[in-house]
Backbone:
């Protein structure tokens, strides 16, 4: 398998989980739906970011680091008077290259969906300085493109393990959005 095929294999093998998460996020057609989304993204994203912050990333990442948006999520929640309804769960992330790549495939890929969600948030009267900072930041990020370069440049990896890690992160996202 050539490196450039990794992305397409991941997309194909995680598409079902990805669709489930998209459905759990919903349309964000109302401010109440957006508030639920914001709680869900908090419960999903903050444990992942905490786990990533505890890792020494593989050398093939060079100077690239994943985008961190937890601070913006908390500011958005504050704007909308949302108190986190629970402590976010602890999430353990393996330190091997495959597990990190699998998790980051989901995290960095979320910037693509953020573009759509940001336009929906703007329609609700939110924006980059109130209520939708995290989406504004994600939607302008170049992280996805850079992550794909890292994925392609990574040495030989066990793609089954990368896929399993991606699916585990999608399951965490699904759980966070459905429990809100």
Residues:
């Amino acid at each position: 398998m050539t490196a450039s095929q990794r992305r397409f294999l991941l997309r194909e093998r995680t598409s079902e989980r990805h669709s489930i998460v998209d459905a759990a996020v919903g349309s964000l057609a109302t401010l109440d739906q957006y508030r639920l989304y914001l709680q869900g993204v908090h419960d999903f994203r903050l444990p992942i970011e905490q786990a990533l912050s505890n890792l020494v990333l593989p050398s093939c990442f060079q100077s690239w680091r994943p985008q961190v948006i937890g601070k913006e999520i908390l500011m958005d929640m504050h704007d909308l008077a949302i108190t986190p309804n629970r402590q976010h769960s602890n999430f353990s992330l393996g330190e091997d290259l495959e597990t990190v790549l699998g998790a980051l495939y989901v995290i960095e890929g979320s910037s693509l969906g953020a573009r759509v969600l940001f336009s929906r948030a703007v329609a609700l009267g939110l924006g980059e300085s109130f209520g939708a900072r995290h989406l504004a930041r994600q939607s302008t990020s170049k992280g996805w493109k850079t992550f794909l370069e890292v994925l392609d440049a990574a040495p030989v990896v066990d793609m089954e393990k990368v896929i399993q890690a991606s699916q585990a992160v999608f399951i965490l996202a699904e759980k966070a959005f459905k429990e809100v």
User: Anything to note?
Assistant: The CA atoms of residues 114 and 139 lie 5 Å apart. The helical segments are 5-25, 31-53, 70-79, 97-123, 133-139, 143-153, 159-179.
